[in-house]
Amino acid sequence: MNETALTAAGTDDPGEGLRAVLALRTLADGLETLHVERARRLGWSWQEIASALGVTKQAVHQRYGKRFG
Protein backbone atom coordinates (compact mmCIF):
# COMPACT_ATOMS: atom_id res chain seq x y z
CA MET A 1 0.00 0.00 0.00
CA ASN A 2 1.44 3.40 -0.88
CA GLU A 3 1.93 6.27 1.56
CA THR A 4 -1.15 8.17 0.37
CA ALA A 5 -3.37 5.12 0.81
CA LEU A 6 -1.94 4.53 4.29
CA THR A 7 -2.65 8.16 5.18
CA ALA A 8 -6.22 7.90 3.91
CA ALA A 9 -6.82 4.74 5.93
CA GLY A 10 -4.85 5.49 9.07
CA THR A 11 -5.25 9.11 10.04
CA ASP A 12 -7.52 10.41 12.76
CA ASP A 13 -7.65 13.82 11.03
CA PRO A 14 -10.63 13.88 8.62
CA GLY A 15 -9.11 16.73 6.60
CA GLU A 16 -5.87 14.85 6.04
CA GLY A 17 -7.75 11.67 5.23
CA LEU A 18 -10.06 13.38 2.75
CA ARG A 19 -7.14 15.10 1.01
CA ALA A 20 -5.48 11.70 0.68
CA VAL A 21 -8.70 10.24 -0.77
CA LEU A 22 -8.79 13.08 -3.32
CA ALA A 23 -5.17 12.41 -4.29
CA LEU A 24 -5.93 8.71 -4.78
CA ARG A 25 -9.05 9.47 -6.81
CA THR A 26 -7.07 11.85 -9.04
CA LEU A 27 -4.40 9.20 -9.59
CA ALA A 28 -6.99 6.51 -10.36
CA ASP A 29 -8.83 8.78 -12.82
CA GLY A 30 -5.59 9.55 -14.63
CA LEU A 31 -4.68 5.87 -14.89
CA GLU A 32 -8.16 5.02 -16.15
CA THR A 33 -7.97 7.68 -18.85
CA LEU A 34 -4.53 6.48 -19.93
CA HIS A 35 -5.65 2.87 -20.25
CA VAL A 36 -8.95 3.65 -21.95
CA GLU A 37 -6.99 5.58 -24.58
CA ARG A 38 -4.55 2.67 -25.01
CA ALA A 39 -7.38 0.18 -25.26
CA ARG A 40 -9.13 2.23 -27.97
CA ARG A 41 -5.86 2.58 -29.94
CA LEU A 42 -5.50 -1.20 -29.76
CA GLY A 43 -9.01 -1.67 -31.15
CA TRP A 44 -10.92 -2.54 -27.99
CA SER A 45 -14.66 -1.99 -28.17
CA TRP A 46 -16.51 0.19 -25.70
CA GLN A 47 -18.11 -3.00 -24.36
CA GLU A 48 -14.73 -4.62 -23.70
CA ILE A 49 -13.51 -1.51 -21.87
CA ALA A 50 -16.73 -1.25 -19.87
CA SER A 51 -16.51 -4.90 -18.83
CA ALA A 52 -12.91 -4.47 -17.70
CA LEU A 53 -13.91 -1.43 -15.62
CA GLY A 54 -17.08 -3.01 -14.22
CA VAL A 55 -19.37 -0.33 -15.64
CA THR A 56 -21.90 -0.13 -18.45
CA LYS A 57 -20.93 0.50 -22.04
CA GLN A 58 -23.02 3.68 -21.93
CA ALA A 59 -21.15 4.99 -18.88
CA VAL A 60 -17.70 4.52 -20.38
CA HIS A 61 -18.75 5.86 -23.78
CA GLN A 62 -20.36 8.91 -22.19
CA ARG A 63 -17.18 9.66 -20.25
CA TYR A 64 -14.64 9.00 -23.02
CA GLY A 65 -16.50 8.76 -26.34
CA LYS A 66 -15.85 12.31 -27.51
CA ARG A 67 -12.21 12.16 -26.50
CA PHE A 68 -11.26 8.75 -27.87
CA GLY A 69 -14.16 8.05 -30.26
Oligomeric grouping of the chains = single chain
Helix content: over 70%
What is the SS-derived class?
mainly alpha
Radius of gyration: 15 Å
Sheet having the most strands: none
SS elements, strand count: 0
What average pLDDT do the residues reach? Answer: 92
Low-confidence runs of at least 5 consecutive residues: none
Termini separation: 34 Å
**Global shape:** elongated
Element order, helices and strands?
A: HHHH
Proportion of residues in extended strands: under 5%
Short summary of the structure?
With 69 residues, this protein is mostly helical.
What is the strand and helix layout of this fold?
Blueprint: H1 3-10, H2 14-41, H3 46-53, H4 57-68
Helix pairs in contact: 1-2, 3-4
Q: How would you describe this structure to a colleague?
A:
It is elongated and about 45 Å long. The N and C termini lie far apart (34 Å). It contains four helices and no strands. The longest helix is centred in the middle third of the chain and has 28 residues, at 14-41. The mean pLDDT is 92. It has one domain. It has 69 residues and is mainly α. The chain has helices spanning 3-10, 14-41, 46-53, 57-68. 81% of the residues lie in helices and 0% in strands.
